[in-house]
């Protein structure tokens, strides 16, 4: 599905007319019509406004679901990373990197030993990544 089809589909799913979408995204009605007809492509700032107006990510407008990012469960978790401290984000990143490395190097052997090892690390203890 291309951009024009995704834009029209998302607009209709939300029960919006082209005029309502144009008003919300602060673009002219003629432009929304041209975007949906495939006669014009929006600039990056307009894609952002369209995404906000439709309450979707810009990725949802630009790519098919299988072409971008994690599935919905992981997307919600990743969005939750915003509230973590930099140290906590580094721990999450290290855990993910370790699991992916274990998967690549061990041809589908369980990763539980890696995650158990990481989970046992006390990041608050002095000399072990904590602030102390």
UniProtKB/TrEMBL annotation:
<feature type="domain" description="HTH cro/C1-type">
    <location>
        <begin position="7"/>
        <end position="61"/>
    </location>
</feature>
<dbReference type="InterPro" id="IPR010982">
    <property type="entry name" value="Lambda_DNA-bd_dom_sf"/>
</dbReference>
<dbReference type="GO" id="GO:0003677">
    <property type="term" value="F:DNA binding"/>
</dbReference>
<dbReference type="InterPro" id="IPR001387">
    <property type="entry name" value="Cro/C1-type_HTH"/>
</dbReference>
<dbReference type="Pfam" id="PF01381">
    <property type="entry name" value="HTH_3"/>
</dbReference>
<protein>
    <submittedName>
        <fullName>XRE family transcriptional regulator</fullName>
    </submittedName>
</protein>
<keyword id="KW-0238">DNA-binding</keyword>
<dbReference type="InterPro" id="IPR049639">
    <property type="entry name" value="RstR"/>
</dbReference>
């Amino acid at each position: 599905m291309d951009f024009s089809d995704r834009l029209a589909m998302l607009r209709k799913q939300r029960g919006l007319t082209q005029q309502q979408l144009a008003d919300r995204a602060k673009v002219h009605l003629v432009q929304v019509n041209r975007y949906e007809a495939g006669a014009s492509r929006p600039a990056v700032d307009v894609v952002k406004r369209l995404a906000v107006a439709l309450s979707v990510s810009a990725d949802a407008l630009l790519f098919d679901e299988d072409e971008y990012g994690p599935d919905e469960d992981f997307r919600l978790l990743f969005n939750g990373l915003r509230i973590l401290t930099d140290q906590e984000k580094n721990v999450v990143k290290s855990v993910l990197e370790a699991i992916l490395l274990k998967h690549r190097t061990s041809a589908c052997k369980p990763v539980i030993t890696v995650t158990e090892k990481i989970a046992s690390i006390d990041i608050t203890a002095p000399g072990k990544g904590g602030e102390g």
